[in-house]
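Q: Got a minute? One more chain.
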Amino acid sequence: MPDAKGGTTMSGGAQRFLDNLEYLRTVASVAVDHLQRNRDEFAKNATADEVLRLERTISDIRSRVEVLEKELQALEQSLSGKTAALH
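A: Always. Here it is, folded:
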């Protein structure tokens, strides 16, 4: 849709979609930083119960990452014609 300067603006839904992806990127970055800073201490001091909880959490994270990767691939594939036209 045209804006006041003659350019185009995204629809509210598209803007929210992109904002949510940016948020996901930020959260993932913070999570990786936290993991890198704290993994050695956790491994050194974790109780058996904490290790079991960690294993379940890691399994869940991996499952979600696989789904996320499939969704990102599907999105890229559905946009392949549009992105080729931009280059």
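A: Residues 11-45 form one domain.
Q: Perfect, thanks.
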